[in-house]
Amino acid sequence: MDRRHDEETNLRHYPGGGLLPAGNVFETGVGYYWGIHGTRDFMRAKYGYLTALLEFDTDVAVAKALDEALDYIRLNISDSVGVRAHASALYLRLGRIQECYDFIKGCAKQYAEGSNDEEEPRRHLKVRDADLTEPVDIFPEFYSLPHLSALTFIKFHVAQALMDIANSQEASANLPAAVEDTVTAFLPFCELAAASPNPKELQKRVAAQAKEAFKKAHMHNKYFWADNLDPTVVMRQPNPPYISDDTVDEVRSCLGYIFSLWHSSPGALEFVRRNLSESQ
Fold it and tell me: Whole-model pTM?
């Protein structure tokens, strides 16, 4: 039974009064649900539905979970249970690299500026087509560990793609120009290389950004990357009721969302091993 559906039905038919204001709370309360006590059973059920979806490791389930997460944030901007932190991994598991970067950049800007304006958190939904090759300065090391992990993966992934493009261009250098262009056009992020006057230098710059992002995540939590390499022990632990920075509990709370991505991406674990070795 979908408890979320039952709770939504109850809200839509509630006449108002007590813990709920009069009127349709799905219109009048959007953005501030957790502050309306009568909506909390619905929000808890919504979060339970999201986590249940992730028991099914399929693209369809992950896509539904992401939709649910974004709707949760839309209804409850303050994001009292931390859904925003894990939406980034869901974007990445679906291959939606640009959307993920837009999302975490918007969140980081709001965090860095520390605005108390209730409208400010909405901006993480408004960043579009941010530069995937820009510096990582906006993301402080004491920021969200899940987002720093996502940032590292994005930079690693883009650097790898740019390397593939450079290798393809070298391998096809003796082919007619039209054939060479056709070959590289099918590679991810070919538009980034095409827009750069020096694709090799661009690749080196993004690779350096990946290392910097890795260091930020490592400074935030010294256990994260080692547990990412071998998640067996930490993933046997129950999800912690409370989370503190730079603890194994923090790793446990977020690693399940993203470690499979690192383990299934060519070259990713070697990147982690190399950078972890350099950090010790």
Answer: 0.87
Whole-angstrom distance, CA of residue 196 vs CA of residue 193: 5
Distance of CA 252 to the CA centre of its chain: 16
- Average pLDDT over every residue of 215-239: 95
Q: What are phi and psi of 130, to 5 degrees?
A: -65, 155
Band of residue 174 on the pLDDT scale cut at 50, 70, 90: low
Residues in Cβ contact with 211 at an 8 Å cutoff, skipping those fewer than 6 apart: 275
Q: Give me 41's structure tokens.
A: 């059973």
SS3 76: strand
**Degrees, nearest 5: CA angle 243-248-253:** 50
Task: Give the separation between CA 49 and CA 113, rounded to whole angstroms.
Answer: 32
Tens digits of residue pLDDT in 131-163: 999 999 989 888 899 999 999 999 999 999 898
Q: Taking 60 as the threshold, does the pLDDT of residue 277 lie above it?
A: yes
Count Cβ atoms below 10 Å from residue 196 Cβ, excluding itself: 15
Q: What gap in Å lies between CA 152 and CA 133, rounded to an integer?
A: 12
Residues, the chain: 280
Q: How many Å apart are CA 264 and CA 259, to the nearest integer?
A: 9
